[in-house]
Write a structure and sequence with these properties.
The complex is a heterodimer. By secondary structure, chain A is α+β, with helices and mostly antiparallel strands. Chain A contains nine helices and 16 strands. By secondary structure, chain B is an alpha/beta fold. The chains are: A alpha+beta, B alpha/beta.
């Protein structure tokens, strides 16, 4: 895709004593992030409309009486912004203490989701634990929803609305919403039911944007107890032709989950149920592990590669010898990579000088 | 697609025809939903009241197989209302006058008689499309899997040419490809009419080029399609190498297909599972799967992207390219000394003009949409900007044709087939993914509730579904997505082999099967 041509930056503001240029429409948060400032936030997802709910990203702006949420405040020319004063940092620490105090736990396995470590990282960064305000809790885990994909552990919910917003803004499904207020706040579906009975398509977007692990990828979580570190490998989804970029999660050679790539050029972080949750055909016990050849008993039997490849080659030689070079036909796959399709067509063209080759696109 | 996926958020008017995008290309559909939120309008034409229909400004429940009539009717209105882009037609197209004269006879009233739509809705669809500054067309197999698939596509092209909706941001003709690398299979030359990079085999210059590259004389005539090859098994075609396709379940007319494979002297199947098709093979070779294989794929917007291995393959499974190369070497075919996927891909780039600017390392981040004709080229997200590849955009004079089989007293109901959100193709993959059964554990036939009552079948009961080619047993389910007289099911479940019924006809040009139209008879199932 052609990179968006940004209008020439003309305006500047002062960010922590440094003059920084910006383009009209950018928020203070976006300018600060671009300038490499690590402004903390819990309700921000770059793909969504700014929300201003968590108040962690507040900054001081000269001439304004109170600190402002940087994610919802547009940058203006000549602004003087301070992102990390003592007062601001103290404010952030208190907010984080309040958030941490009402969660059953604040350390969850990274397999729960793409953003699941965000709260824990901030608590570590600000060396905060929740003791001071311990007491009441908002959000109650849903133990009745036994769907195999999405854990709904709302004891850990901090009401950042990212799941509600991603479902509405990114997916357009509007399957979940917030009910009640204050400590009674609860993420829920229409008629307070289970996801299966809602407009949910199990795309997993809510799971991947949740900053606390209140929503978890149940399939990946099956591997929490497996030994080894989680490694990520960037690839492209094996299903439809949209070509969504994904990160494969592995633990010691075991494929344990999939996460969408937020910078994937085709999907920009989006996935569907198949790309998100239908990966475990790969290491399924039904996989073919050895070559098979049909013996005189009429059945397929396992054999070694030499035997199988010789049989395969001899059969093609014989068919071409007896019936001519047009008698051999190749069908390439629309699922295998280029290298498969290229060698298939080369096998037919270089082998027989014909064009007796096709792929599965006609059916 | 003529335009990139990102463009789906930019049209003023979105025309979706024959695409159940929220289920078959869900992530692309999220872009359409965002466009609608921004204020774009959408027209949806589909025999079924699919989820997209609920979001549309105008939904056109056309009779299966009547697309050409609808599109001719729309062209008529656009011409009559002088919504044609004169400048575009004069500067960039050919045969526009003949087309404009041709469509004079196809009034909305005429089209209504064939499509079953109110003439006023056809009129309105034409006005919405014709008046938009940026109008984009999206389609899938609902357009191509007909005996008139080529006519359908060319009718859509006619509309875009008529209104100048090509070669600009947020416009275009955009087929959504159904498989992760079906575009790539074509790019690589796995088609009977083209060498890699869509270089036609009938062009002697290409024949000479590949004769040199591959070290042998090349036929100047194109090969036969897979459909024809299956028809000629045992009579001209005697050996087949099938890579990663479950032909027996996915192709039309299953009995015919099984009979064809049995008639071969030699069948070699490369796959990751012992599929229904592998059961017919003399040799079955285990391939590495997605997640185990390094390689390249091209998506529906012509974006060339890297696939990367993350885990080791099971047992002795090998990459497809290695397997094919080993067979070739044993037959003394030169040029198969590849040592890696990178070797193979770089050879392809060296002989394909659309990939000339690419190589393995350059596609690391997937930022190129082909054609990329040289190393300094940024790629081509929008096709046909400024000019068409072949000079001028051609209008085609097309007339409506009935499907190969139409409903009659014996087979009075239209069956159309497709995919479901939670299943993919023949379920060799999704059927083996934990949890999918929670949402979709069996296939069922979607029937309008009033039809269900008329036919005496209880909701959830068993029905017998018969066509001219065979019969299957299937669970019946009441659904308001089906209009009266049309039923739907997917082809994903092997225990409900709907492709025993299909296969009434083929497009004469592409030989694509008419999988979207099959007259059937439905009755309560009796033991």
């Amino acid at each position: 895709m052609i990179a968006e041509v940004k209008p020439t930056a003309t305006a500047t503001l002062t960010l922590d004593g440094v003059e920084v240029s910006f383009t009209e429409g950018e928020t203070i948060y976006e300018v600060a992030e671009r300038a490499g400032r690590e402004v903390p936030t819990l309700c921000y997802d770059a793909r969504l409309e700014a929300f201003g709910g968590c108040r962690l990203c507040v900054v001081e702006v000269d001439g304004m009486r109170a600190p402002v949420a940087s994610c919802t405040t547009p940058a203006t020319a000549g602004m003087v912004v301070k992102t990390t004063t003592d007062a601001i940092e103290k404010h952030r620490r208190t907010l984080l203490e309040l958030v941490a105090s009402e969660n059953r736990e604040n350390e969850v396995d990274e397999l729960r989701g793409h953003a699941s470590q965000e709260l824990k990282s901030l608590l570590d960064r600000y060396e905060v634990r929740g003791g001071r305000f311990a007491g009441r809790q908002s959000g109650t885990s849903n133990s009745t929803d036994d769907n195999p994909f999405i854990l709904r552990d709302y004891d850990l919910c901090i009401s950042c609305y990212r799941c509600v917003r991603v479902c509405a803004e990114q997916e357009g499904d509007h399957a979940i919403t917030m009910m009640n207020r204050g400590f009674e706040k609860q993420i829920t579906t229409e008629f307070n039911g289970i996801l299966k009975d809602s407009a949910c398509t199990f795309c997993g977007q809510c799971v991947q944007t949740c900053p606390t692990g209140a929503l978890g990828d149940r399939k990946a979580m099956r591997a929490e107890s497996l030994p080894g570190e989680v490694e990520k490998t960037r690839t492209v989804c094996p299903y439809c032709g949209v070509g969504c970029s994904v990160d494969l999660l592995t633990k010691e050679d075991r494929l344990v989950g999939v996460q969408p790539a937020m910078d994937g050029p085709a999907n920009e972080g989006a996935l569907c149920i198949k790309g998100q949750f239908a990966f475990d055909f790969v290491q399924h016990e039904d996989r073919l592990k050895m070559p098979l050849v049909r013996d005189e008993d009429g059945e397929l039997h396992e054999t070694d590669w030499e035997t199988a490849l010789d049989r395969a080659a001899d059969g093609f030689k014989k068919a071409a010898g007896e019936h001519g070079r047009h008698a051999v036909y190749g069908v390439a796959s629309g699922r295998a990579p280029h290298e498969a399709a290229y060698t298939m067509q080369k096998f037919i063209r270089a082998g027989f000088g014909t064009h007796q080759i096709d792929n599965c696109s006609r059916a | 697609m003529s335009n990139p996926l990102a463009d789906m958020e930019k049209p003023d008017l979105i025309f979706c025809i024959g695409t159940n995008m929220t289920e078959c290309h869900p992530v692309a559909a999220t872009r359409i939903k965002r466009a609608l939120k921004r204020g774009a309008q959408m027209v949806v034409a589909d025999p079924r009241r699919i989820p997209l229909a609920e979001m549309a400004e105008l939904y056109l429940p056309i009779r299966v197989g009547s697309d050409v009539a609808l599109l001719l009717g729309m062209a008529h209105v656009i011409a009559r209302e002088r919504l044609v882009d004169r400048e575009f037609i004069d500067a960039r197209t050919k045969d526009g006058e003949a087309f404009l004269e041709h469509v004079q006879q196809f009034t909305p009233e005429w089209a209504a008689g064939i499509t079953g739509l109110p003439p006023a809705d056809i009129e309105r669809a034409a006005l919405l499309y014709g008046r938009a500054d940026k109008a984009a067309i999206y389609y899938t197999l609902g357009i191509t899997e007909h005996i008139c698939g080529v006519d359908n596509v060319q009718s859509l092209c006619n509309l875009a040419l008529l209104t100048g909706n090509l070669g600009r941001e947020g416009t275009g003709i955009n087929p959504m490809r159904g498989q992760n690398n079906i575009q790539g299979a074509g790019d690589c030359g796995a088609v009977p009419a083209n060498y890699p990079g869509f270089q036609p085999v009938h062009d002697p210059a290409n024949g000479d080029k590949f004769a040199k590259l591959y070290g042998r004389e090349m036929d100047g005539e194109k090969g036969i399609t897979k459909v024809t090859a299956l028809n000629r098994c045992g009579e001209g075609i005697h050996a087949m190498l099938i890579d990663g396709e479950n032909t027996v379940v996915s192709d039309p007319d299953r009995h015919h297909c099984e009979h064809a494979l049995r008639a071969l002297d030699h069948l070699v199947v490369i796959d990751i599972f012992r599929t229904e098709t592998a059961e017919f093979a003399d040799v079955v070779l285990p391939a590495t799967a997605w997640g185990e294989t390094d390689g390249v794929c091209t998506n529906t917007e012509r974006r060339v992207q890297r696939l990367r291995a993350a885990v080791t393959p099971p047992g002795e499974a090998k990459p497809d390219w290695w397997i094919v190369s080993q067979i070739a070497q044993r037959m003394s075919i030169a040029g198969f000394e590849f040592e890696s996927a990178k070797d193979v891909f770089n050879e392809l780039c060296g002989l394909s003009p659309i990939y000339a600017g690419l190589d393995w390392d350059r596609i690391e981040h997937g930022e190129y949409n082909w054609p990329v004709p040289h190393k300094d080229h940024p790629g081509t997200p929008v096709l046909h900007e400024g000019e068409f590849k072949n000079g001028r955009g051609l209008f085609r004079v097309i007339c409506y044709r009935d499907p190969a089989e139409v409903v009659d007293d014996e087979f009075p109901v239209w069956l159309t087939t497709g995919r479901r959100l939670q299943a993919y193709h023949t379920r060799t993959q999704t059927g083996r993914a934990a949890g999918i059964d929670y949402l979709l554990s069996e296939e069922s036939l979607e029937i309008h509730p009033d039809d269900l009552a008329d036919w005496g079948i209880p909701d959830g009961g068993w029905a017998s579904l018969r066509s001219r080619r065979g019969a299957i047993k299937i669970r019946a389910r009441a659904s308001n997505m089906s209009p009266r007289g049309t039923v739907f099911c997917s082809f994903s479940f092997s225990d409900v082999p709907v492709n025993i019924l299909t296969g009434s006809g083929y497009d004469p040009v592409t030989e694509t099967a008419e999988l979207k139209v099959c007259p059937v008879n439905i009755s309560p199932f009796e033991e």
